[in-house]
Amino acid sequence: MLNTPDNLYITPDQFWNEYNKPFLDKAIARGDEIIMTTVLNQNTLYDEVGNLTGYGREYYYLLEHGYIYVDGRMILK
Questions:
Q1: Do 52 and 63 form a contact (C-beta atoms < 8 A)?
Q2: Is the Cβ–Cβ distance between 75 and 62 less than 8 Å?
Q3: Which of 12, 35, 61, 65 is the most buried (most CB within 10 A)?
Q4: Which residues, in sequence order, are CB contacts of 16 under 8 Å at separation 6+?
């Protein structure tokens, strides 16, 4: 689980590049199964104007790296 202090978040791109993406890259390299703690739907993947949320960015990043969604988990194909 990625758990960082709130003060490390400055902008969405900064947080993605410094914390979220490296965390996911390490999990991907290990072949980890990832539990998705939030329901996947339009409201969790996209904001009110249609931009990807941080959660959506994580989900699609994992798909791009060979993961599939199965019963609330992301697993490697």
A1: no
A2: no
A3: 61
A4: 54, 57
Q: Name the pTM for this structure.
A: 0.89
Q: How many residues does the chain have?
A: 77
pLDDT at 66 over 90: yes
Helices 54-64 and 21-30: angle between axes, nearest 10 degrees = 30
HSE value, Cβ hemisphere, 13 Å, CA-based, for 39? 3
d(CA 31, CA 25): 10
CA distance 23 to 16: 9
| Spatial CA neighbour of 74 closest among 65, 62, 64 | 62
- What is the spatial order of strands in the sheet that 73-76 belongs to? 34-35, 73-76, 67-70
